[in-house]
Amino acid sequence: MVTRVSAARLTGLLGSRDDGRPAYQWLADEVIGLVGDGRLLHGARLPSERDLVSALGLSRTTVTRAYGQIRERGFAEARHGSGTLVQVPGGVVRGGGEPLPHNLDLAPEDTVADLRSASPPAPTGLTAAYAEGLARLPSLTGGMGYFPFGLPELQEVIADRYTERGAPTTPDQIVVTTGALSALVAVLHGLLRIGDRVAIETPSYPNSLEMMRDSRMRMIPAPISSDGADLEGVEQALRHGPRAMLALPDFHNPTGVYLDDEERARLAHLWQQYDVLGIVDETNAEMWLDVPAPALPMAAHSPRCITVGSAAKTYWGGLRVGWARVPVPMVQAVRHARLCLDLGAAVLEQLVLVELMRVNGSLCENSRSTLRESRQVMLGLQAELPDWQVVCPRGGLGLWWRLPRPRSSALVAAAQRRGVLLASGSSFAVEGRGLETYVRTPYALYADRLRPTVPLIAEAWREVAGE
């Protein structure tokens, strides 16, 4: 399937021309930057030179020269009868999806779309941030390169972001890791013991569930649904005496639930009442799409709680940088456990994240716009399957559908035969079963990639339902 990029669309993606570069150089650099940032996909057809001349008000000679330079640098090729097609030098690498327990294998070659993972592509400006990081790298290469708790500069930027959001934080409270899951492991190993009880929402993020099992924690399920948090159910779970509770109050994965300040205050009160250590996964905290998330961080309501975060959703999964925000009395224990995992995140990626956070402390507007468009495409399942029910979240990366029949695993198998890879509802359950009336459909991919999946999923469901 060839995606056609209109002249109007490309014009909207291009940055402003105000840096003194010749017009042809500006156009070539901008298009190549869009390919590097994933905004123009491999195989996409660029607008004709004539259409782009009209849209940009440039001369034909300028556009022709720019297209020639893009081809010379390996980011496009001219095909007779097909125009100018975008290409990624070296070709697109297969795989790269979020490695959940149920999708450790690469997607087959004939896959239409892999919807097992909810992780967005790189934002605008990623390649520029890497260039800035490389330019600054020589200032650090004179040392040994080990920063086990994070570059001081990155610790400061992350701490400032928490303070800005309403939870005053000092840099020494930040422990940088190689992702949110690594931060969670350091917290559990530093502060809990094998066999401790941990309350955890069900459904929940599969990697967190698997990590709890591997750490030999005794999980106590606390119910949550797309209709909202069940704080009465949480209190019932806390009566079983867990030492800690893992919560995802910010666009919960997979339900999309977002707790308001009143609900967060009540949850914090329950943690204090039952002497439970709150552990908060804020991976999706910056992923609001409609209006800015109004609630304060859980750390503002529960000063004793620990927060883990990541660059994966807000920026890019390939950065592999996460962190834990830890109250001062517990920092040393978490640092000690962190040293048992590895000796620190990669220095270049930390420099890149510093640059990204300084330019956009939150998700950039281009990414929000892209995700809103993709969410709308995936909501098209409502027209195809009116008996499917969903609460449209105000943010996050996926839709949590309630099916009219408990056939989630059968739906996953039928969709796979049509080239669409899904994760069943049961893969998000603490018990590993029992959520067969649900299925998650992420909208992290670009809209053009998602559109073909809607009729295929609908067709798969009709087969499963016997229609």
Topology of helices and strands:
Blueprint: H1 7-13, H2 23-36, H3 49-56, H4 60-72, E1 76-79, E2 83-86, E3 113-114, H5 126-136, H6 152-165, E4 174-177, H7 180-191, E5 197-202, H8 206-214, E6 218-225, E7 228-229, H9 231-238, E8 244-247, H10 261-273, E9 277-281, H11 298-301, E10 306-310, E11 322-325, H12 331-339, H13 347-359, H14 365-378, H15 381-384, E12 398-402, H16 408-417, E13 420-421, E14 423-424, E15 438-442, H17 447-450, H18 453-465
Parallel strand pairs: 3-13, 5-6, 5-8, 8-9, 9-10
Antiparallel strand pairs: 1-2, 4-11, 6-7, 10-11, 12-15, 14-15
Family: In the C-terminal section; belongs to the class-I pyridoxal-phosphate-dependent aminotransferase family.
InterPro entries: Aminotransferase_I/II_large, HTH_trans_reg/aminotransferase, PyrdxlP-dep_Trfase, PyrdxlP-dep_Trfase_major, Tscrpt_reg_HTH_GntR, WH-like_DNA-bd_sf, WH_DNA-bd_sf
Keywords: Aminotransferase, DNA-binding, Pyridoxal phosphate, Transcription, Transcription regulation, Transferase
Query: Which CATH class of the largest domain applies here?
Result: Alpha Beta
Distance between the termini: 29 Å
Q: Report the average pLDDT across residues.
A: 90
Beta-strand residue percentage: 5-15%
User: What is the CATH T-level topology of the largest domain?
Assistant: Aspartate Aminotransferase, domain 2
Number of domains: 3
Which spans have pLDDT < 50 for at least 5 consecutive residues? none
Shape: globular
Number of strands: 15
In CATH, the architecture of the largest domain is 3-Layer(aba) Sandwich
C-alpha-based Rg, rounded: 23 Å
How many individual helices? Answer: 18
Sheet/helix structural class: alpha/beta
Give the strand order of the largest sheet, numbering strands 1, 2, ... along the chain.
4-11-10-9-8-5-6-7
Q: How does the major sheet shape up?
A: 8 strands, mixed
Helix content: 25-40%
User: What is the name of the CATH superfamily of the largest domain?
Assistant: Type I PLP-dependent aspartate aminotransferase-like (Major domain)
